[in-house]
Amino acid sequence: MDLVKFYRLLKKVILRGKGKKEKNSFKGKITNIPEHVAIIMDGNGRWAKAQGKPRIYGHSHGVDRIRPIIEVATRIGIKCISFYAFSKENWNRPKGEVDFLMKLLENYLNNEQETFLNSRSLLKVIGDISMLSEDIQCKIRTFEELLKEKIKEPKIMVNLAVSYGGKDEIVRSVNKCISREIEKKDKNIFITEDMIEANLDNPWYPKIDLMIRTSGEERISNFMLWQLAYSELYFSEVLWPDFSEEDFIKAIEIYSRRNRRFGTL
Ligand code: IPE
Ligand code: IPE
Ligand code: MG
């Protein structure tokens, strides 16, 4: 399909709202929509600073961008979307900021259940959640289980990376593989790529097609290293609290023009 037409069509899908008709007429016309998009939501602090506000102000506004981006992703047929919310390295930030981010996570878990249920979205929190408070861990489990139980035909899977490190996830996966092998009482422990993949925090959509990072930084910062092995990367200058549905679609449009080769000719 002509790219200009593609972009216009995407815009129409957004602007016309969420009618079933538009959704169906859109589906099937675009063949190269990414299945799994991952986003490094960066730039909250700089966004706040630019307005003379404390960094936490940027984090609050950043959270508000998650819901509309999930909505537009669902509408264009993306199957899985991953958000980097808090890295393992982010624990080293000042206590006040970390506490505030934990409170935001708690509020998100308290407030978003209806939205996830109504939009038939599943949630999976990935990362070393053992570092979170017992209370938040419990809220995460309840949230995830409720959605799994109530949603029979999910439209999208949302990964929220919290206390997350890509290297850490791989190491934890390898350790799970080893424990399972030891249980089998087999003397020769042999770990394969498939085994590591099957023991990642969320093994359902292991490959990321498109990774977006906002705020002009061009690095991975220990995000989903395994899953990013063959992803297309897209860096936006926009700071995360300003990242709009149109910005997201622009990234999808650019992705759709890329030629992925996976090592072949
Ligand atoms: C991203 O925004 C959110 C988290 C890392 C929690 P930052 O807080 O990194 O914002 P900048 O990069 O300092 O602007
Ligand atoms: C990466 O952003 C983590 C999140 C967006 C949650 P950072 O702002 O922490 O990354 P660096 O320090 O700039 O690499
Ligand atoms: Mg940052």
Which key phrases capture this entry?
265 residues, alpha/beta, Undecaprenyl pyrophosphate synthetase, 11 helices, 6 strands, globular, binds 3-methylbut-3-enyl trihydrogen diphosphate, binds magnesium ion
Work out the helicity level: 40-55%
Give the ligands present.
3-methylbut-3-enyl trihydrogen diphosphate, magnesium ion
What is the number of strand segments? 6
Radius of gyration: 19 Å
Write the layout of secondary structure elements.
Elements: H1 3-15, H2 20-26, E1 36-40, H3 44-50, H4 55-64, H5 66-75, E2 80-87, H6 95-111, H7 113-118, E3 121-126, H8 134-150, E4 156-164, H9 166-183, H10 193-198, E5 210-213, E6 232-235, H11 245-257
Parallel strand pairs: 1-2, 1-5, 2-4, 3-4, 5-6
Helix pairs in contact: 1-11, 3-4, 4-6, 6-8
The protein binds 3-methylbut-3-enyl trihydrogen diphosphate (2 copies) and magnesium ion.
Give an overview in words.
The protein has 265 residues and is of the alpha/beta class. The protein has a domain at 33-165 and 207-224 and 233-248: Decaprenyl diphosphate synthase-like (Undecaprenyl pyrophosphate synthetase, 3-Layer(aba) Sandwich), CATH 3.40.1180. It is 47% helix and 14% strand. The chain has a six-stranded parallel beta sheet, with helices on both faces. Helix 1 packs antiparallel against helix 11 (245-257), helix 4 packs parallel to helix 6 (95-111) and helix 6 runs parallel beside helix 8 (134-150). Bound molecules: 3-methylbut-3-enyl trihydrogen diphosphate (2 copies) and magnesium ion (MG). One 3-methylbut-3-enyl trihydrogen diphosphate is lined by residues 41-46, 86, 90, 101, 215.
